[in-house]
């Protein structure tokens, strides 16, 4: 009886390991195939974007580029989007980007 339980336990363990390794293989294939990554427990597809580079470009003509880049980085991480150009076009990123405000009720995202 103990041998049967041990065999069943090992079988379940091997099955779980096979599932995990196949998931890791799929994630790696998707990483190399394009820009879409599978993240988190709920397995949503998200775009992996370069917030630092995009925000540096967005804030290049701003009067206070360091403040702009910091705010843009926060908005980029939360909303997974940076509008094109150096100003305007905020609607492209949707309500997440346009509705985010500071503690003083000013728009946060440049």
UniProtKB/TrEMBL annotation:
Signal peptide stretch: 1-22
Name of a matching Pfam family: GASA
- Top-rank taxon of the source lineage equals Eukaryota
Keywords noted in UniProt: Signal
Q: InterPro entries, per this entry?
A: GASA
Q: Say yes or no: keyword Signal present.
A: yes
Known PANTHER family for this protein?
Answer: EXTENSIN, PROLINE-RICH PROTEIN (PTHR23201), GIBBERELLIN-REGULATED PROTEIN 2-RELATED (PTHR23201:SF18)
Recorded family membership:
Belongs to the GASA family.
Q: In its UniProt entry, what is this protein called?
A: Snakin-2-like
- Which organism was this protein described from? Dovyalis caffra
Read off the lineage from the record: Eukaryota, Viridiplantae, Streptophyta, Embryophyta, Tracheophyta
